[in-house]
Amino acid sequence: MYEARLRETLPRVRERMARALERAGRSDTAALVAVTKGHPVSAVEAAVAVGLRVVGENRVQELDDKVAEVGRGYAEWHLIGHLQRNKVRRALELVDRIHSIDSLRLARTLSAEAVRADVAVGGHVQVNVSGEGTKGGFEVAEAVDALAEIGELPRVRVDGLMTMAPLTDEERRLHEVFRAARRLMEEATRQLPAVGRGLSMGMSNDFEVALEEGATILRLGTVLFGERRT
What we know:
46% of the residues lie in helices and 17% in strands.
């Protein structure tokens, strides 16, 4: 079921991406994270079957269950939801990248556990560009200082920024948030050359606007797989 659906939805998503990139005058593209949260492991298998090897999950437990079924090397696993510090040790065994480093306490725990396990971890620092109380991450005003501190932690690689826009159909507001995230990234990388230029932003309802404003990684679930079952 999922594979048949993806063979219909993925080409349409790719076409929408291409048009958005063209409108923005971009000659590059963006990576696509297939968000399988709330879907069974068959969604992961379908994603890999159509060439989407980067899979995103929100919770460590759900990720753990899926990895147990298909294997750690079956896909490139990204954690895109909030990571509790007591789940860090297990997360480091399961994920290739974390999109939601949203506090200094979490970053320090990631570093300590990565040192203990003799591994390195790459991730995006989450910034609350919209200023909404329901969103996690660093405030814009503190983000560059936080990036500098996180970048000095052993075994932690800062691949760039992540943000989430408000749930709205108002394109002007979406453009404002995504544009502010891009400008913040540009300022951060100007001051901190070791920070990566990855910009993880854009979901099913707003990915075209995100691309127009410079997104390099999209996190797409519903537009590919349909509504979640759980």
